[in-house]
């Protein structure tokens, strides 16, 4: 029987968040990312019991072919804070194999592609499932995924307990449509992804601009074709969008970077789908090895939300 919908879970978004929480260690090894991740997935599966969970992971991004400096700032380790973040990332990477092993044993499918970020895979899957009439819940703290929200697609941030649907999209983002959200990101830029903004407009300025003119294309048409806007009376940063060719080029380039449905997006390379091998006994053993007592204490109840584990036999608790 086909599921009624899908939970598309952004692996690294959740993993990094829980890694940066209170430290849990076994000897010198940190395990807080593993523990937090598993508890979050379990909570989401309990809340959305009729939806099939799928975890998507980041590969190398095709966007670096468009912008060499894309996300470059995330890899810099010069200042004390950057060095601290780099150390935290290194500790997280050590925990990812255990997270993926646990998901495999829980029977939760995992998807990755050599050239794609989790965002891209989430967009491809959400569009496909929603077109089939299925409900899609995007589980992530990454606001870039908000552009995928629609009648059948919900954005759920379990980290801050926030949810965005088609009904409250404007209240949350400040713009009316997902296309305007993409244009807002393109105009404002994204410092975290090393994507420069266009003409110093900024996020608030971009929201005001789009609420006034609708879109960059409509604005350009009103200025140059319909002549309903007096260009000379516009603020300089707006005027530059029609007078400075470099600004127009920068905007078009940013659209390709931030639009998860961009025509520039290539087909997935080396798409890997790990359907998992559900095994309650091995999952219990892994959790016992990691000293996750709050999971193993009531293990049968804990795994009850994972349908693919039903019928597998859990090993007895360690004496």
Automatic annotation (TrEMBL):
Pfam families: 5_3_exonuc, 5_3_exonuc_N. Keywords: DNA-binding, Exonuclease, Hydrolase, Nuclease. SMART domains: 53EXOc, HhH2. Residues 5-277 form the 5'-3' exonuclease domain. One of its GO terms (molecular function) is 5'-3' exonuclease activity. The keyword Nuclease applies. GO terms for biological process: DNA replication, Okazaki fragment processing. This is 5'-3' exonuclease. It comes from Ancylobacter rudongensis.
């Amino acid at each position: 029987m086909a599921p009624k919908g899908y939970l598309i879970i952004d692996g690294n978004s959740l993993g990094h968040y829980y890694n940066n929480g209170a430290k849990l260690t076994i000897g010198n090894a940190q395990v807080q990312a593993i523990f937090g991740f598993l508890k979050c997935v379990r909570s989401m599966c309990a809340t959305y019991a009729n939806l099939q969970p799928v975890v998507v992971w980041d590969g190398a991004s095709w966007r670096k072919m468009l912008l060499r400096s894309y996300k470059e700032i995330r890899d810099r380790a010069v200042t004390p804070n950057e060095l601290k973040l780099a150390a935290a990332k290194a500790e997280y990477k050590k925990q990812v194999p255990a997270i993926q092993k646990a998901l495999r044993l829980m029977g939760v499918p995992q998807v990755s592609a050599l050239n794609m970020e989790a965002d891209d895979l989430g967009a491809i899957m959400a569009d496909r499932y929603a077109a089939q009439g299925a409900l899609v819940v995007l589980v992530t703290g990454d606001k870039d995924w908000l552009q995928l929200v629609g009648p059948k697609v919900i954005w759920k941030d379990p980290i801050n307990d926030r949810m965005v649907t088609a009904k409250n999209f404007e209240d949350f983002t400040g713009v009316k449509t997902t296309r305007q959200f993409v244009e807002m990101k393109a105009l404002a830029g994204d410092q975290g992804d090393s994507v420069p903004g266009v003409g110093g407009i900024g996020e608030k300025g971009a929201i005001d601009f789009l609420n006034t003119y609708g879109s960059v294309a409509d604005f350009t048409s009103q200025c140059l074709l319909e002549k309903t806007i007096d260009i000379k009376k516009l603020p300089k940063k707006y005027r530059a969008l029609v007078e400075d060719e470099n600004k127009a080029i920068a905007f078009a380039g940013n659209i390709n970077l931030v639009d998860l449905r961009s025509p520039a997006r290539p087909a997935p390379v080396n798409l890997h789908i790990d359907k998992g091998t559900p095994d309650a006994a091995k999952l219990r053993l892994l959790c016992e090895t990691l000293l996750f007592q709050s999971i193993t204490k009531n293990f049968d109840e804990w795994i009850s939300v994972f349908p693919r584990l039903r019928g597998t036999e859990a090993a007895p608790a360690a004496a």
